[in-house]
Write a structure and sequence with these properties.
alpha+beta, 146 residues, four-stranded antiparallel beta sheet, globular, single chain, 5 helices, 4 strands
Length: 146
């Protein structure tokens, strides 16, 4: 893909199963390391990631040859598998089935990166971006007429 120009930035957010607080501080840094490795292994170039007790954010650049749904499905599956096998958290880590994904322009990457970095502060003061925190599909999204 060396001859194609692309700037494809994606923000993903997904939650733990039933939004249970499964991501403990004791292994959060290791989970993020594993997440970074798995995103890289699947062709992504991770820019930022962070995790709260019940959800994860990942900002990544993907080449146009990578299918977004396949990428995130594989990253989520491999990450939970490795966390459960390598870190052996008390209850096994399990993700929700869905996820949220947004495309970004290059000039939005810094702002979204700061938002991801400041997750704890945003959650503590209740100043959350509804758009960036959405982790499942919205059935009320506008649809094209047939």
């Amino acid at each position: 893909m060396g001859h194609a120009f692309h700037q494809l930035y994606y923000h993903f957010a997904w939650a733990t199963h039933a939004r249970e607080p499964q991501v403990h501080r004791s292994y959060r840094a290791e989970l993020l390391r594993i997440l970074n490795e798995e995103a890289n292994n699947r062709g992504g170039r991770p820019i930022r990631h962070n995790a709260m007790a019940d959800h994860v954010h990942l900002l990544v650049r993907l080449p146009p040859t990578v299918c977004v749904a396949d990428f995130i499905g594989q990253v989520k599956g491999a990450t939970s598998h490795r966390v459960n096998e390598e870190l052996k958290p008390g209850p096994r880590l399990k993700w929700q089935e869905g996820y949220g994904v947004l495309t970004l322009r290059k000039d939005e990457v810094d702002k979204v990166s700061r938002y991801i970095d400041d997750q704890e502060r945003h959650h503590a003061n209740g100043r959350l971006s509804q758009l960036l925190e959405t982790t499942e599909g919205d059935d009320d999204a506008p649809r094209m007429a047939p």
